[in-house]
């Protein structure tokens, strides 16, 4: 049985949203055990007694890493926090993957310093799956913030890891790889991006060239490689714009008179289809690639629905033996 260690105290809606998601996904993943780490009394109060079985367990912890805590200091000082105890379960082989909605920096530090890097990986990279308007209807972008400073060889390795993930987990043959840059031409960007462009162009990946920010969601590329700073800005921009557009559309259709409301009813199916297409929650969480077990981060404001999809994503990563294959591919 696969086991997912879940930080039940991380995020704005913890532990209720996390428990609700676990209870919803549990019957769909009969071969997966989920262990919730956190305040046992609070968690247990949300779970019907009959649901606590071989597939669902609670490990009591007494501390929580807050969003404002300094990441490395927090994982060293809060040894009995839900996140750190969960990470140690993974390190000790008691669990196969770690999921948290908590402090991003602390989760990355837990992945790197507790669970550990795969030998041969220079710097792990954080990679979400985001919606796109055409082709496969989604794309991966790496790194989106695990590394504030980047080197050309790091970005090249992130492109390779992203490609490997797209092939194994998303089932894409020969994924198209692009480099996020401020222009399409090969000589665009600073020295770092020009160097990365040459490495990608000379390598064995299906490199299609540079991609600009306005093309990210068009489906032009399956994997987008970028430095951590630019990737984080791009990710927050996409998440923010998607939320603003969907809410603005809803307000416009429901608050502008009877005829507008009638028109909205006529196109309800198309609106729902568009909303689902650009709903970032359906694409799961961001995966820290390059560590010895799947470490997945879901947005701190996530509700049960987003956590539900992320649990299914983690289970699929485990089913595909991604980490074992990563070690064979990169751990040389």
TrEMBL record:
Pfam families: FA_synthesis. Belongs to the PlsX family. It catalyses: a fatty acyl-[ACP] + phosphate = an acyl phosphate + holo-[ACP]. Keywords: Acyltransferase, Cytoplasm, Lipid biosynthesis, Lipid metabolism, Phospholipid biosynthesis, Phospholipid metabolism, Transferase. The keyword Ion transport does not apply. One of its GO terms (cellular component) is cytoplasm. This is Phosphate acyltransferase. Its main location: cytoplasm. GO terms for molecular function: phosphate:acyl-[acyl carrier protein] acyltransferase activity. It is found in: Cytoplasm. The lineage of its organism: Bacteria, Bacillati, Bacillota, Bacilli, Lactobacillales. InterPro entries: FA_synthesis (IPR003664), Phospholipid_synth_PlsX-like (IPR012281). Homodimer. Probably interacts with PlsY. The keyword Electron transport does not apply. Pathway: Lipid metabolism; phospholipid metabolism. Its EC number is 2.3.1.274. It comes from Lactobacillus gigeriorum DSM 23908 = CRBIP 24.85. GO terms for biological process: fatty acid biosynthetic process; phospholipid biosynthetic process. Catalyzes the reversible formation of acyl-phosphate (acyl-PO(4)) from acyl-[acyl-carrier-protein] (acyl-ACP). This enzyme utilizes acyl-ACP as fatty acyl donor, but not acyl-CoA.
């Amino acid at each position: 049985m696969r086991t997912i260690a879940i930080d039940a105290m991380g995020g704005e809606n913890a532990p209720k949203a996390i428990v609700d998601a676990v209870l919803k996904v549990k019957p769909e993943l009969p071969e997966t055990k989920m262990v919730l780490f956190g305040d046992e009394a609070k968690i247990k109060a949300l779970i019907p007694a009959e649901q606590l079985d071989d597939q669902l367990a609670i490990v009591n912890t007494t501390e929580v890493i807050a969003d404002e805590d300094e990441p490395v200091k927090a994982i060293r000082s809060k040894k009995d926090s839900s996140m750190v105890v969960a990470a140690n379960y993974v390190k000790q082989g008691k669990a196969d993957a770690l999921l948290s909605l908590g402090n991003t920096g602390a989760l990355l530090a837990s992945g790197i310093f507790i669970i550990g890097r795969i030998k041969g990986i220079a710097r792990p990279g954080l990679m979400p799956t985001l919606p796109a308007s055409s082709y496969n209807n989604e794309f991966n972008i790496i790194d989106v913030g695990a590394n504030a400073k980047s080197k050309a060889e790091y970005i090249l390795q992130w492109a390779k890891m992203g490609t490997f993930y797209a092939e194994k987990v998303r089932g894409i043959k020969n994924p198209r790889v692009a480099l996020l840059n401020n222009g399409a031409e090969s000589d665009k960007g600073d020295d770092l991006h020009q160097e990365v462009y040459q490495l990608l162009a000379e390598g064995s990946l299906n490199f299609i060239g540079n991609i600009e920010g306005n093309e990210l969601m068009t489906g032009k590329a399956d994997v987008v490689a970028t430095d951590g700073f630019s990737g984080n800005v791009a990710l927050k921009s996409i998440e923010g714009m998607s939320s603003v557009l969907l809410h603005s559309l809803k307000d416009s259709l429901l608050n502008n008179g009877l005829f507008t409301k009638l028109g909205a009813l006529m196109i309800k199916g198309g609106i729902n289809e568009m909303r689902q297409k650009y709903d970032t929650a359906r694409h799961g969480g961001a995966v820290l690639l390059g560590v010895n077990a799947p470490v997945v981060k879901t947005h701190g404001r996530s509700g049960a629905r987003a956590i539900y999809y992320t649990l299914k994503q983690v289970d699929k990563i485990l089913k595909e033996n991604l980490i074992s294959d990563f070690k064979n591919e990169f751990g040389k």
